[in-house]
Automatic annotation (TrEMBL), chains A, B:
Keywords: DNA-binding, Transcription, Transcription regulation. Gene3D superfamilies: Winged helix-like DNA-binding domain superfamily/Winged helix DNA-binding domain. PROSITE patterns: HTH_GNTR. It comes from Sphaerimonospora cavernae. The keyword DNA-binding applies. It holds the Pfam family GntR. SMART domains: HTH_GNTR. Transmembrane segments: none annotated. This is GntR family transcriptional regulator.
Length: 137, 137
DNA sequence: GCCAATTTGTGCGTATGTATT
DNA sequence: GAATACATACGCACAAATTGG
């Protein structure tokens, strides 16, 4: 994988696309560390900001999580719990506010479900760990 | 609203919080233009990157949309269509890939529903314009 | 069509702070 | 303490898109 600075596609998107391919193909497995910013800078000859932007893009897609002082890691996708809800239930989804992110411990790039039961009561669930199933008991 | 550069809270988060308050309170109404980067730089005495980061934060939350050459605009929230699905339907949500974003015309900060019907067929819906209702016909 | 002004996008450099190992 | 890694913040320059004259 190389970066073409003369391409119409911005360098940070090219870089993100390359990393995304590695994640999708499994060559970067869930839990595994993504190359550090310095790594990307050296290997691909880009500025640090360019590397950071590629990382930020994947983080916003929910593909990786970043921890200061440690690095970025490929997110787990499979371990979702199926939650069962009865007829009349309404489900919305949106990105959480920073307060909701803190409250639920949700990383960047992860939406939340807003589930409203027939009585109008709302509950929120992080969308990376839950799947909604419509079915009576 | 002022920015305190000596606060523990980063300047761009302070700025984003101020703008978020204006949006939530309706003082910045849906469809209305958010102050430009240059405006923010001049009014609050921050660097352009700081202003851009505040904007990017709100965009990632789905609160605003940005159009190159025009500016950022407060997103509409209310106009969601209710989609009805039968028992056995499974619903997940996640952020779209860039390809899915293009395919569905979804702006940044907007998740998509992945709806799987009892037969296993998948369909995708943008989460800012759709609500899922579980109910038989 | 053209040009200028405005606004966001991309990319580089530097410096310093914070967190982890 | 040292090394590594990410976070914040400033500066600069030019590109791309839109709008208005």
């Amino acid at each position: 994988m190389t970066i073409d600075p003369y391409s119409d596609i911005p360098a940070y998107k090219q870089l993100a696309a390359g990393l995304r391919t590695m994640i999708d193909s499994g060559s970067l497995a869930p839990g595994q560390r993504v190359p550090s910013e310095s790594d990307l800078v050296q290997r691909y000859g880009v500025a640090r900001e360019t590397a950071r932007r590629a990382i930020a893009l994947l983080r916003a897609e929910g593909l990786i999580q970043t921890i200061q002082g440690q690095g970025s890691f490929v997110a787990d996708r499979q371990e979702a719990v199926t939650m069962r809800f009865p007829s009349g239930t309404e489900v919305a989804a949106r990105m959480p506010s920073p307060e909701e992110r803190r409250a639920f411990g949700v990383p960047e790039g992860v939406p939340i479900f807003i589930v409203r039961d027939p009585a109008g009561r709302e509950s929120k669930l992080r969308a990376d760990r839950n799947v909604i199933l419509f079915a009576e008991e």
